[in-house]
Write a structure and sequence with these properties.
- The complex is a heterodimer of chains A (634) and B (220).
- Helix content of chain A is 50%, strand content 17%.
- Chain A is α/β, with parallel strands linked by helices.
- In chain A, the strands form 5 sheets. A 6-stranded parallel beta sheet of chain A has the order 2-1-3-4-5-11, with helices on both faces. Chain A has a 5-stranded mixed beta sheet with strand order 15-17-18-20-19, with helices on one face.
- In chain A, helix 4 runs parallel beside helix 5, helix 14 packs parallel to helix 15 and helix 15 runs antiparallel to helix 17.
- Chain A is rod-shaped, with a radius of gyration of 59 Å.
- Chain B starts with a strand and ends in a 9-residue tail after the last helix.
- Chain B has a 5-stranded parallel beta sheet, sandwiched between helices.
- In chain B, 57% of the residues lie in helices and 11% in strands.
- Chain B is elongated and about 75 Å long.
- Classes of the chains: A alpha/beta (634), B alpha/beta (220).
- Chains A and B meet through helix 12 and helix 13 of A and helix 1 of B.
Chain lengths: 634, 220
């Protein structure tokens, strides 16, 4: 039969070639025909759903599309030999079936994806597609084959189980045994080489070798459950529950096996990663597919391209690494770590950057606000300090004035007494009086006491005089403004209007700013009290406007005249205007020191004070202060 | 014409006691409770001095000082104050006060100040009297004699005066002799001092010479 078929096919192909040649001869002048679609046959020994195969095909198609830009038709034959059982018979059947299916349409490239299919294709190429290039692909652990037939090349993966075992010991240096899970069928050679490698690796390390080969699934699970955790398990595959049992996808079986044991499982296929194993030195199925695709495209012209080796890849499962507590430092360079939980930064970088920007903006805002607050506090503190200074100056000058007044008031009678004592002692000069001597003693004692009292007063006066008093150039506008800054809050609270009439061009006056502020403050306070008194008078008519204070400054020859004018009720006791004596007050809570202090301050400035009372309308106080002359000291 | 110490103070008790005290020291004392009262005193021309409080309602010590300085009989002023601070005292002394005392002044200072003020008054009165006499003397001179006096004060020679006043040197000599005899002052230096004592300036003397009747003519 095969012979007949081959003859038939030869005839057909000859006819076809002749036709093609004829056609070519006929159309020699015509523009070149679009290239004929090349046919590629992929022959896989297992089911099309095998994950490694799916990955392989993905890499193959993708790369072929990239490098060849179409023009290929891909046929796939999954012989599913494992499921079918007896390999040789099945292969025989498959060959016939394939010839029947594709015999009249030969392939340009045939890609067998394992040693078995490779051998099959090499043996049957003459029947199937004598002109086809063979692009052989091996499975991990499979020999590539020492010699290749003509018109053949290969993409080979070199991963061996030895490397996977070495990886296992790198992760678990204290492991005491290596167990291998595998089955003789469908890859007896593969299993043999794996067991050989594993035995060598265990012997060299002096650890135990445990064979879990060709066990039923139930037994296998049982063995895995009892396996100590200081073992390294190498999983080759589990295809069929012997004898005559279920057929399995090895990667799927792996998931259940991983749940049975505390020991880490390693495997040599990338598709095993993610099923619960730690990882392994794996065949990169997709890269293998890509390599095969490149060879396929390259075989179009000229001799078959040089074989390609696809290096194995260390593929690891981060979840398993975490489970066994394997630090990142033990992961070899270039390893592909799957299922790595994306880091916080990977997952939320936009949010993180946004939050960062927000944080920075907010920080800036807060900093600005804090800065502003600080500035305001500083300004407030300055005002407070100034106020404290004024209040202190006020107290000192009140006390000083008080003491000075007291000294003055007492000085007078003490002086009189001294005069009288002396007059009396002068009268006692002649000893006509019987008690002259004793009287003289009395008078001397009186004089001494008088002097002593006077000395006390002198000390008080000297103390008061030590008050700091610094004469400097004082800007009148600033003086008024600063004083109002201190008095303002109270005035505003009472609804008292303050008008300032002060030309900015006024020259400075010579004075102590604090003292002058004190004087002005006293006058403003008096005015405000007067205005408040008119407002509070129960019998008086309520004023239409709340009343106000006008502070004006004008130049008057060598002086500046400062006037504080109020709309209060005027002075209740007009003698206040002329009498500068202290302790005279009309206010319930007054000390009677306000005007005397102003008086004293103005006097110290060599200025003049004038009080004009307009009863019922208000009071005008005029202060005349000397202008500042350059070169004038304190 | 008795020398009096005038006491001015608004404090009645102090006024009285001070009067007693000074009386005890032998001074003649007059008391006034205000500047106004003092200004209305009799015997305005009498010698003496003033002991006044500095701080008083209405007119104070400074005002009194100014008023007195401008008056015909500027009595020396001694201030008495209950305060006695430096600026006030400086001001007072600058304005010509004789002294500046506190109300509790020791005797030596008080008596010293009063005596200084009185002797100053005496000196000033003598000077004033001299001046008044000199002036009176000069005012009695005739126009020609005044011309001669002016010439002598200016230090002119007879010849220069003859040219200046358009008369012969003889005539100049004649009027000079008349002048010296009348004043009973012969040295030119003494004549110049008389003019100075009288407080008459060259200009004033020139005016006087021009205004006064020329007097009897000298006939050659």
């Amino acid at each position: 039969m095969p012979l007949l078929r081959s003859i038939l096919r030869a005839v057909i192909s000859g006819a076809l070639s002749a036709a093609c040649l004829g056609a070519a001869a006929e159309t020699v002048a015509d523009p070149p025909q679009p290239p004929r679609t090349r046919r590629v046959l992929i022959i896989d020994q297992e089911a099309p759903t095998r994950p490694a195969f799916v990955e392989f095909m993905r890499g193959f198609r993708q790369t072929l599309a990239e490098v060849a830009d179409g023009g290929y038709e891909i046929f796939i034959e999954n012989l599913d030999l494992v499921r079918l059982g007896r390999l040789d018979d099945d292969l025989e059947q498959a060959a016939g079936w394939l010839l029947q299916k594709y015999g009249d349409a030969p392939f340009d490239v045939i890609v067998p994806t394992s040693a078995i299919t490779r051998d099959f294709v090499v043996a049957r190429r003459a029947e199937l597609s004598p002109d086809a290039t063979i692009v052989a692909v091996n499975r991990p652990g499979e020999m590539v084959g020492s010699s290749l037939p003509p018109k053949a090349t290969y993409a080979a993966t070199t991963g061996t189980i030895t490397e996977t075992i070495r990886l296992g010991f790198a992760f678990f240096p204290r492991a005491r045994r290596v167990a291998v899970i595998g089955q003789t069928n469908p890859h007896p050679q593969l299993l043999a080489s794996v067991i050989y490698d594993a035995r060598r690796a265990t012997e060299s390390r002096g650890v135990e070798f445990v064979s879990l080969v060709d066990l039923s699934l139930i037994d296998l699970k049982q063995r895995l459950r009892t396996l100590p955790s200081d073992s390294i398990v190498v999983y080759i595959g589990y295809w069929k529950d012997e004898p005559g049992g279920m057929t399995y996808v090895p990667a799927v079986v792996l998931e259940t096996l991983c749940r049975e044991t505390k020991a880490p499982i390693f495997g040599g296929l990338d598709t095993y990663v993610g099923r619960g194993i730690v990882g392994g030195v794996c065949t990169d199925a997709r890269a293998l597919g890509a390599a095969a695709a490149r060879l396929t495209a390259a075989s179009r012209t000229g001799p078959p391209p040089e074989p390609v080796v696809v290096p194995p890849l260390v593929i690891l499962d981060q979840r398993a690494l975490d489970r066994f507590g394997i630090p990142a430092s033990r992961i070899p360079a270039g390893a592909r770590v799957m299922f790595r939980e994306p880091g916080f930064w990977d997952r939320y970088w936009i949010q993180a950057v946004g939050a960062g920007v927000l944080f920075v903006l907010q920080a800036l805002l807060i900093a600005t606000l804090v800065q502003q607050l600080r500035r305001r506090r500083r300004a407030e503190r300055l005002v407070d300090e100034q106020r404290a200074l004024i209040i202190h100056a006020g107290r000192v000058s009140t006390l000083g004035q008080f003491a000075a007044s007291l000294a003055h008031e007492l000085g007078q009678p003490l002086g009189s007494m001294l005069n009288n004592i002396e007059a009396a002692s002068l009268l006692l000069r002649d000893d006509s009086c019987p008690h002259a001597a004793e009287l003289r003693e009395i008078l001397a004692d009186l004089a001494a006491d008088d002097q002593r009292a006077g000395a006390v007063l002198d000390r008080i006066r000297a103390m008061v005089r030590r008050q700091r008093f610094r004469i400097a150039a004082v800007n009148v506008t600033a003086l008024i403004r600063d004083t109002l800054a201190l008095a303002g809050p109270r005035l505003r609270a009472d609804g008292i209007q303050v008008a300032i009439d002060c030309p900015a061009s006024l020259p400075p006056i010579a004075g102590d700013e604090i003292m002058l502020q004190q004087a002005l403050l006293n006058l403003i306070g008096n005015s405000a009290d007067a205005i408040r008194a008119t407002q509070e008078q129960p019998h008086g008519r309520l004023p239409v406007s709340p009343g106000g204070i006008t502070i004006s400054a004008t130049r008057a020859g060598p002086m500046i005249e400062l006037a504080v004018i109020d709309t209060g009720g005027g002075l209740e006791h007009p003698e206040i205007a002329t009498a500068i004596e202290p302790f005279l007050t009309t206010k319930e809570t007054g000390l009677g020191m306000g005007l005397p202090i102003v008086h004293s301050i103005i006097e110290q400035h060599e200025g003049k004070i004038e009080i004009v009372d307009d009863p019922g309308r208000g009071v005008t106080v005029r202060l005349r202060l000397p202008l500042w002359e350059e070169g004038r000291g304190t | 014409m008795s020398t009096t110490v005038h006491l001015i103070d608004d404090d009645e008790s102090f006024l009285r006691s001070m009067a007693r005290r000074l009386g005890g020291h032998g001074y003649r004392v007059a008391t006034y409770s205000s500047v106004a009262e003092f200004l209305l005193r009799p015997d305005q021309e009498d010698p003496g001095c003033v002991l006044t409080d500095l701080q008083m309602p209405k007119r104070d010590g400074f005002e009194l000082q100014q008023l007195l300085a401008a008056s015909a009989n500027p009595l020396p002023v001694v201030f008495v104050t209950g305060k006695g601070d430096i600026p006030t005292s400086v001001r007072a002394m600058r304005a010509g006060a004789e002294d500046f005392l506190t109300k509790r002044v020791p005797t030596s200072e008080l008596v010293g100040a009063i005596d200084r003020a009185l002797s100053r008054n005496k000196r000033e009165r003598a000077a004033r009297l001299r001046r008044a006499n000199a002036r009176q003397t000069i005012e009695r001179l005739s126009g020609r004699e005044l011309q001669m006096l002016l010439g002598i004060v200016k230090g002119m020679q007879n010849k220069e005066m003859a040219e200046e006043y358009e008369m012969s040197e003889r005539t100049v000599k004649y009027y000079r002799t008349m002048l010296t005899r009348r004043l009973d002052i012969y040295a030119s230096v003494d004549l110049a001092r008389l003019v100075q004592d009288a407080g008459i300036s060259i200009e004033e003397l020139t005016n006087m010479a021009a205004a006064a009747p020329p007097g009897p003519l000298h006939e050659e």
